[in-house]
Amino acid sequence: MGHWAESRRPTGCTVLVFEKGATAGVDVRGGAPGTHETDLLNPTAMVQQVQAILLSGGSAFGLEASAGVSKYLEEHGLGFRAGPVVVPIVPSAILFDLGVGDPKIRPTAESGYKAAQAASAGKVAEGNVGAGAGATIGKLFGMKSAMKSGLGTASLRVGGTGIVVGAIVAVNAVGDVVDPKSGKIIAGARKPDGSGFMDSMARIREGHGVVATATNTTIGVVATNVAFDKAQMTKIAQMAHDGLARTIYPVHTPDDGDTIFAVATGAIPARANYGAIGALAADVMAQAVLRAVMNARGIAGLPSYRDLQSRG
Q1: 121 neighbors 112 (Cβ within 8 angstroms)
Q2: In this structure, is residue 125 part of a structural domain?
Q3: How far is CA 301 from CA 142, 143, 268, in A?
Q4: Whose CA, among 71, 182, 191, 304, lies 20 to 30 Å from 42?
Q5: CA 54, 34, 66, 264 torsion: positive or negative?
Q6: Residue 248's pLDDT band (boundaries 50, 70, 90)?
Q7: For residue 123, is it within any domain?
Q8: Count of CA atoms in the C-beta half-sphere (13 A) of 168
Q9: Can you give the pLDDT at residue 194?
Q10: Is residue 214 scored above 70 in pLDDT?
Q11: pLDDT at 310
Q12: Rounded Cα–Cα distance for residues 12 and 106 (Å)
């Protein structure tokens, strides 16, 4: 995994590179998605493996970063072989972060290339990095009440099986983020006097309509080291959305482009029930959402979870 972040304003992109290829599926739940090559992940489509997945800021403009990832992969001979040509397969999804700073500055092909170039198997940075650099949450009442969010990861090992399930997510939702264990909002739309949270769902129940800000979308990837086919990975991607539903209120709205990819590397020979892996994928996705919020750093006008905690 590799990140790239823009220094002139908060935006960036994150790339997951699979040097040996991986089987993938996708599920889009939001009403305003921005994606690239997701149709190829349909179980009926010919190509069976991907070489990378891109998560990017910059709204639809940020899809340009996938060209840079493709260039990097081509240089390294990674892709679908069509005769003498190698065509890298890079499914991608974007989030809208153009409301933070200069909207003319967004990820480019060079950004995607640099993120792929930086990819490593080491510890993954979280918070204001990569696709989470410009992420914000709690926007039901506009940016004046919003908070800074970011990118989070989580993983678990399944007993003594050697099976690993992991998740990465850039949380850029219109809704609030809730800890499913306590049921309490940990970040979201803030009251004007700074005394706490407005509770977006409570306000919706009172009749407040969702403001069509088009500044949202939570995008992520769940992955496992066992082997599944594309149909099974599509189901795992669907189930992983439960992790968003447990932590983000509201989620999957017309103004969100919520998209989750699911990837199987087949690195170990273990056999697994894909329904059980999907259930675990939802768990790690929920954990990753919380980590995205908890590891974010505040910027001017947009405090973070850490900022509120330090104020008591």
Answers
A1: no
A2: no
A3: 12, 9, 47
A4: 71
A5: positive
A6: very high
A7: no
A8: 25
A9: 79
A10: no
A11: 83
A12: 7
Residue-level pLDDT at 216: 78
Q: What is the mean pLDDT of residues 289-299?
A: 97
- Angle of helix 65-75 versus helix 109-117 axis, rounded to 10: 50
Average pLDDT over residues 235-245: 98
Place of tokens 């930086």: 118
pTM above 0.90? yes
Instruction: Quote the CA–CA distance of 175 and 29 in Å, as a whole number.
Output: 15
Secondary structure letter of residue 233 according to DSSP: H
DSSP string, 4-61: EE-SSSS-EEEEEEEEEEEEEEEEE-SSS--EES-GGGSTTSS---EEEEEEESSGGG
Q: How far apart are CA 289 and CA 281, in angstroms?
A: 12
Amino acid in the structure at residue 293:
V
Both tokens of 22, joined, read 């991986």
188 lies in some domain: yes
Domain count, the chain: 1
Asked if residue 124 is part of any domain, the answer here is no
Nearest to 57 by CA among 1, 101, 123: 101
CATH code of 210's domain: 3.60.70.12
Q: Residue 178's Cα: distance from chain center in Å?
A: 17
pLDDT at 126: 97
Neighbours of 39 (CB within 10 A): 11
Domain boundaries, position 88: 2-118+130-310
